Amino acid sequence: MSDDRLYVTAKQAASALGVSLPTLYAYVSRKLIRSQMVQGTRKRRYWKADIDRLKGEQEAGGQADSSLGLINETKITLLTEHGLYYRGKSVIELAEKEAFESVAALLWEADVEIVFTAQLPATPPSYARLKRSLGDLSVFERANPRLYDLSKAGMARSGADLVRWYAAIIGGVDGPSAAPLHEFIVSALSAPAEFADIVRRLLILAADHEFDPTTFAVRAVANAGVTPCNAVMTGMIVSGGQRLQSGRAGAVSRLLEEVVGLADPRDSIVARFRNGEAPPGFGPPKSRIQDPRAESLMNALEASLGDNPEFKRFRRAVDTASEISGLRPDFILPATFVGRMLGLKGQELALASLGRVAGWIAHAMEQYHSHELIRPRAAYTGPLPA
């Protein structure tokens, strides 16, 4: 994927900001605008997001919104109108060829061979008994390792332990494994082998999505210095909010149940539009920033499950919604379908949340190690004292 659209020339940058070229170069020297050499030339190109940010600050009277220091800067995930990037690398390209463990290590700025070793996290002697007693709890409520090392290396190792334990809980097995996570999960769930690559892609695509509300909450608690486990638990709690995509999980699951059970899946979609309802799990056809993750996962499903009867009905339903109104599937829709196919009924988004653990830990690390303790102040707008 070309990244030329993410940069502008010096003249374009200066024009957008309404400044001279020397002023533009001064911004660069003060590190307000990032630039890089154009290969094979002596010219430089300038990061468009920095130009847009400065322009926004100018239009706001020079007041930048630091969002209380929690989301002022990040080096982890870039969300643009032209794609999604983890530390400068295209997420779609990572999903094509990388292992989830490698992507997690990239997010944590760690060596994958150091954090994902053959040494497994210890299994408490009481875990087998505890697992039976937790049988009625969701996978979100069971993951609670005792992880207290807040150094960067320690948080990365804790991250590896946490995702391995979480995978074991999802699979309902007695303990974690050193096997690649996607292979371990498929084996633990007794799923067909063709699901392994789909699970790998899903974990990578779900790992992070810039500063969504769950990530903001994770950074807020990491600001206080909580353990990686508690930071992740915060993300899981917030992800269940009704305003978020995961809050729509029940509605999306019910839609899929209808779609795959009907002789003609179009009936369910058409009925909703006829009643003035938008089918859950779909987003507007056009927005400033398009999410490429759903298309990537749909393509993987098509390649691996193209002849599967349930996928054919699902695909037909998606195409029908697009034909009627131009709606596109949100990432939650194919992610929920994968969970359903793997038998995670009622917990279809557990795999997506496993992938997101890697991103949450990366943001917790960045917030804790790159920022001082923040004490936000409120802007009071109520009645004045007598």
Describe the protein.
The chain is mostly helical. It folds into 2 domains: 57 residues, Multidrug-efflux Transporter Regulator, Chain: A, Domain 2 (Orthogonal Bundle); 310 residues, Citrate Synthase, domain 1 (Orthogonal Bundle). The chain has 19 helices and 8 strands. It has a 3-stranded antiparallel sheet with strand order 1-3-2. A 3-stranded antiparallel sheet has the order 4-5-6. Helix 5 packs antiparallel against helix 9. It is globular and about 65 Å long. It starts with 6 loop residues before the first strand and ends in a 16-residue tail after the last helix. About 4% of the residues have low confidence.
Count all strands and give the number. 8
What is CATH's topology name of the largest domain?
Answer: Citrate Synthase, domain 1
Main sheet record: 3 strands, antiparallel
CATH superfamily grouping of the largest domain: Citrate Synthase, domain 1
**What is the average of the pLDDT values?**
84
Low-confidence residue ranges: 62-69, 140-146
Structural class: mainly alpha
Helix fraction? 40-55%
What is the straight-line distance between the termini?
A: 62 Å
Overall geometry comes to globular
Element-by-element helix/strand order: EHHEEHEEEHHHHHHHHHHHHEHHEHH
DSSP summary: helix tally: 19
CATH class division of the largest domain: Mainly Alpha
- Number of spatially distinct domains: 2
Strand arrangement within the widest β-sheet reads 1-3-2
Radius of gyration: 23 Å
The CATH architecture of the largest domain can be given as Orthogonal Bundle
Strand content: 5-15%
